[in-house]
Amino acid sequence: MSTIPRLAPRRAVAAWCLFDWANSAFPTVIVTFVFSAYFTQAIAETPELGTSAWGIGMTISGIAIALLSPALGAIADRTGRRKPWLAALTLVCLVATAALWLAAPEPGWLVPALALVVIANIGFEIGMVFYNAMLPDIVARNRIGRVSGWAWGFGYAGGLVCLIVCLFAFVQADPPPFGLDADRAENVRVVTPFVAAWFGLFAIPLFLLVPDRPRSGMGLVEAARTGLRTLAGTLANVRSHANIARFLAARLFYIDGLNTIFSFGGIYAAGTFGMSVAEIIQFGIALNVSAGLGAAAFGWIDDRIGPKRTILIAIAAIAALAVPLLIVESKTLFWVFAVPLGIFFGPAQAASRSLMARLAPPDLQTEMFGLFALSGKITSFVGPALVASATALFMSQRAGMATLLILLVAGFLLLLTVKEPKAED
Hints:
It contains 20 helices and no strands. The chain is mainly α. The protein has one domain: Up-down Bundle (Growth Hormone, Chain: A), CATH 1.20.1250.20. Residues about 1-5 have low confidence and may be disordered.
């Protein structure tokens, strides 16, 4: 089977990076800071019931993502082309996201709105599998980390800019534009079709400019059979690499904890500290700025002290900042302890990729990075499930969020057992 050139034109690389700018609007505005807060404050009868329901929804989508993404990725590797898969999944996300405009501030919309969020999140997350898999085909191996970092930066910037536009153009606009009815929360609900339009518009260059692999000529049934057989072989192969297996096990815990903290940050701020949607957007802007600064600042620290220590520092700092956030009552103190959390989110994830690159044998890099991607998704439902169940049991958001400390501590302790190779001079 022929393959596409290793080096794509610069415009294709730029278009690939721009897709991160495009898609970051969804997790930032819908999942984390705006619609999730609107869901718990305006649609659910109480913030506690809303938090529990949101956690159930994220759990359902997490299980679906864990089951489908590795299998679909393995099948797509056999069929060849990735852009048709990405286009279909992106369209699912866009349609479901735009439909959230219909979710009026009434309890009767709780289940339909949650169903749309679950569908949109599944489309988004599985689509990311195909998006990420395109990177090694458009740049040389020695530029993968650099281009990935550029895209990561575009993502932070895209989420930040979209949040700012949503805040000033819609949520805080007085009067709201286009005759929107603030009493029906239309100035908040309008962010959902806006995010869909943002995502769709800035995603277009990827589909026009980024090259794709040619069709393999293999039928779907044969592709499924071969792809799943390869996936099973990869899973079996990792058992012969105990050190890598320990790292992936550690990452299962701490990445799930970090992602859930980020996903439920807006919900926690709204329900426990009574922050308005406008305040939550401001909080989201501040968190994205601190995350971007942290990712940039820790790049040289990773090179100097190693990725394992960088991850341990980040996990410890996040846990240390999370404890007072579970105790304080003041909104001001919430800002004081919450905004610095962002500084350590980027380093924990970027250094994880760096450590995987050092641990993986040169002849197994691709397979091991496939497992690396799987380790970030296969237990993505655990954190939301813990938050949902503890919140419902104790009728307390603080109790729900406190369970995430268990994941961070477990990941930290497991990571201590990983042996980090010495850096090459």
